[in-house]
Amino acid sequence: MKVGATDVLLPTTMVGNYPNPRWYDGHGFAQFPKGEFVYDAISREAFEDAVLAIVHDQEAAGLDIISDGKVYGGDSPYASIIYHYYERMSGFKPSGTNIGLPIYSTLYSPIVESEVRREHPFHLATLRATRKATNKPVKVSYVGIQVLAAAATNKFYDEDRELGMAIAKAFKEDFQELEQNGCDIIQLDEFVWPYGIGDWEVEAINYAMDGISCDFWVHTCWGNYSGTPGYLPEENDKEFGAWVLDKRTSESAQPERAAAIFPKVLETNITALNYEVGRTGPDDLKPLIDYNWNRPFVAGVIDVKSTITETADEVADRIRSVLEFVPAEQLALSTDCGLVNLNRMVSASKLHALADGAAIVRAELQGQQ
User: Does the keyword Transmembrane helix apply (predicted)?
Assistant: First the structure.
């Protein structure tokens, strides 16, 4: 598989959030300003050191593509995974009802009350810190455009498409900055894709990527907020609210997962598709064959919802199962999702298992040539 200008057999990387060093969150250093670190040299140094520590864990494990780790910083709810973007764009009022999906229903849905525009960089500081810490190819992760549109309460635009395209325009401006500053791969984390993709969602992501030379990967997330898999609300639940998180029954319907994104995902111009296999097994890979997916596929082969570290042989077995659906030259390997719900020691050991399992299968493939 191509990583930049180099062919790499079964390249390895991680998805999304990684545990921050405890000193960063616990001693008042976790400050990520809107815009640049201009006046606060202490916060900038602490942020870059935190990124350096996360990069070190990946390089020590032997990963081929280095991820930023999503170090947002700050104790405020606005610094968490989705609010980071809302507070860097105009148009959003930081209050509202709960988000209308069970596992995310403890989060509020900001109100769109005026035109949405990008006001501050989303990830330029992140890229610069990661690029400074490694000479390997760098991947920077964004929350998906469809996520931000779906999680907001639109009271300004006539259609959801208009809101989605406004967010896509803001993302495109940010992508252009990352392209100019040496980013290799941009990853979009779309954790509402398993609930379906529509026409405007395809239009928005294609617009945001158009003309940008970086590779674009989409991580389709099966749910990991608080370590909880995604699921659908009860059909007879007429009082949907934040408490739904605690009301799940064994009969709750699962999203249709991969079946929900095919064949619509074929209309996107993304470089690579990624989703979990480690926890769910290879059954969700059948649509790749049914719909002739001929682009790179990044298989999650590390179960991030388990505190038990896989052995290298267990990871190798998972990789072999993926190779029944995806040619080796089109396959990359990752964690199922972000490791943020695990402690750093366990997370680091799982990265080692990923790299070691890939090395076993890589040697087997090279021995067959």
Answer: no
Rounded Cα gap, residues 59 and 72, in angstroms: 21
Alpha-carbon distance of 83 to 72, in angstroms, equals 10
CATH of the domain at 104: 3.20.20.210
Supply angle C-alpha 200, 202, 203, rounded to 5. Answer: 60
Give yes or no for a cis peptide into 263 (omega within 30° of 0).
yes
Handedness of CA 337, 70, 18, 137 (dihedral sign): positive
The total of other beta-carbon atoms located within 10 Å of residue 261's CB is 25
- Residue 91 clears pLDDT 60, i.e. is over it: yes
Whole-number pLDDT of residue 201: 96
Q: How many residues does the structure list for the chain?
A: 369
Structurally, the chain folds into a number of domains equal to: 1
pLDDT, position 78 = 41
DSSP letters for 156-185:
SSSSHHHHHHHHHHHHHHHHHHHHHTT--E
Which domain does 253 fall in, by range? 2-368
Tokens of 119: 């006001």
Give bridge partners of residue 217 from the DSSP assignment: 187, 272
pLDDT at residue number 241: 45
> Euclidean distance between the first and final Cα of the chain, in Å?
16
| Tokens 């670190």, located at residue | 37
Question: Distance (Å, rounded) from C-alpha 54 to C-alpha 126?
Answer: 12
